[in-house]
Design a protein that fits this description.
five-stranded parallel sheet; binds 5-phosphoarabinonic acid; Rossmann fold; 3 domains; globular
């Protein structure tokens, strides 16, 4: 008997780039066929290089959609653990937090944390990705230690912000439940062998998960960094990987016409280098996708903002990512996007079918300014507002594109995040920079260690003090 092909039934996301082109917004700001043709060999070469690097094992983030066994283990652990807790608190920053925030707001109900324990099928989630003392103190005030699991996440295992929050959490558990409780209430996610957090996890017997080698923080949402908290709060992480795998297959073509990530990178590259679009606004029209824009902001900024090219020249590359939210920011930012400097591309995220919809009731049938709304739904209204903003932006010759999600689900979010990661990796090579390092972030970490008196960083502390002494302060 012929084997049945295991075809996924997941809804597929689409990329509409009509309004990036000259046919929609004119040749001054729009990209012409000729420009696409001219850049095509470069884009195809970039694709081939990424394929070769992947084959050579240099891009492990690209293989994450297929780590099904690891994800099943995480899901198993999460299922048995989640039932013991009401609260999961993630301690992490940057790439160790933003993916989790994005998955939670996309895939759990908006007010998940406010539901009472009987109605909520999974623990609440708090992501502490800052070191604001008031917020931290306020959080400890509301947490019942007996019902709280902390997941401390740091690839390097030494980031000052995360490790200080870890010390607070450990102290909180020790003080309230006793030292023996620490290993039941703290789970670590970190490197397999390096870093202080790894040493602590091993020596104190903390349950730990591994950030795979070679996967940088901002590309780690599909590792235990993002998957464990997601699974703990009830998100179907296997479907998320299934979605990413669907996008991976679409991104195997060297033809931008078939590969949405390559087309998107090619267009942003031309917009940046030939049309002076030094800013990219991502504007989701769905609250659930607001934090996708936040996650993308780090991905695009940290990956592409680089001083040096791959051949060592000073290039100061990058395109500034900005997050906006439709329809809210129509009443805050859209005026600038339409009539201010034409230095941006806008990437809309549009949802065709919301998981829930709300009908607009009637009531003022004789009031012309209100009666037209009755009978429509909020889903219709927000889609109309997105279309209206897009029309106005296009009329003003502003390059814009739309990623269309037929629905918001683990599978479509998996596709979307993976597409944006691949687009970023292509864009890095198009710009001839290393998209996977972050020397600027590391320099900031070193300066923080020096200022906080960490042993081994005395020289840097002396340099900072010397530099500071040279500068004439101007404070009024
Ligand atoms: O993307 C990155 O590499 C950074 O944003 C890191 O995720 C961030 O600095 C936190 O680092 P770590 O996970 O080592 O604590």
């Amino acid at each position: 008997m012929a084997k049945k092909k295991n075809r996924s039934t997941a809804a597929i996301i689409k990329y509409d780039y009509t309004n990036m082109t000259d046919s929609a917004i004119g040749a001054r700001h729009g990209i012409t066929e000729k420009q696409i043709e001219k850049t095509m060999p470069h884009a195809q070469e970039v694709h081939r290089r990424r394929v070769a690097e992947r084959k050579a094992g240099k891009l492990p983030f690209m293989d994450l959609p297929y780590k099904i066994n690891e994800a099943s283990d995480i899901a198993g652990f999460a299922k048995s653990t989640a039932e013991k807790f009401d609260n999961v608190v993630v301690l992490g920053i940057g790439g160790s937090a933003l993916g989790t925030i994005c998955l939670q707001s996309a895939l759990n109900p908006a007010f998940h944390n406010l539901k009472d324990n009987r109605k909520r099928k999974a623990p609440r989630l708090f992501v502490e990705d800052n070191i604001d003392p008031e917020r931290l103190a306020d959080m400890l005030d509301v947490l019942d230690p007996k019902k709280t699991l902390f997941n401390v996440i740091s690839k390097s295992g030494s980031t000052a912000e995360t490790m200080s929050a870890f010390l607070v959490a450990r102290n909180f558990i020790k003080r309230t439940l006793g030292p023996a409780a620490v290993k039941d209430h703290i789970v670590a996610t970190t490197d397999v062998s390096k870093g202080v957090l790894r040493d602590i996890a091993d020596s104190e017997g903390l349950r730990s998960f591994i950030v795979p080698d070679g996967v940088g923080g901002r590309f780690s949402v599909l590792t235990p960094v993002g998957l464990l908290p997601a699974a703990l709060v009830g998100i179907d992480i296997l479907k998320l990987l299934e979605g990413a795998a669907i996008m991976d297959k679409r991104c195997r073509s060297a033809s931008p016409a078939k590969n949405p990530a390559l087309m998107a990178a090619l267009l942003q590259y031309i917009a940046l280098t030939r049309k002076g679009k030094s800013i990219q606004v991502m504007m989701p029209y769905a609250n659930a996708l607001r934090d996708v824009a936040d996650w993308f902001r780090q991905l695009w900024a940290e990956s592409l903002g680089k001083k040096y090219s791959l051949d060592g020249k000073v290039v100061n590359s990058g395109q500034t990512p900005v997050k906006a939210l439709g329809a809210t920011d129509q009443h805050s930012q859209a005026q600038l996007y339409m009539e201010g400097p034409n230095d941006k591309t806008i990437t809309f995220l549009r949802v065709e079918n919301f998981r829930k919809d709300v009908k607009i009731p009637g009531g003022y049938s004789k009031t012309e300014g209100l009666s037209y709304l009755a009978g429509h739904t909020f889903g219709e209204l927000i889609r109309a507002e997105q279309a209206a903003t897009q029309i106005a932006i296009t009329d003003n010759n502003r390059p814009n594109s739309t990623i269309i999600l037929p629905e918001i689900s683990p599978a479509t979010i998996g596709q979307l995040l993976y597409m944006l990661e691949i687009e970023t990796s292509y864009m890095g090579l198009l710009l001839n920079i290393d998209a996977f390092d972050q020397p600027g972030v590391e320099a900031g970490k070193v300066a923080a260690y020096a200022l906080m008196g960490r042993a081994g960083f005395e020289k840097r502390a002396a340099e900072i003090n010397k530099e500071a002494a040279k500068v004439k302060r101007k404070i009024i």
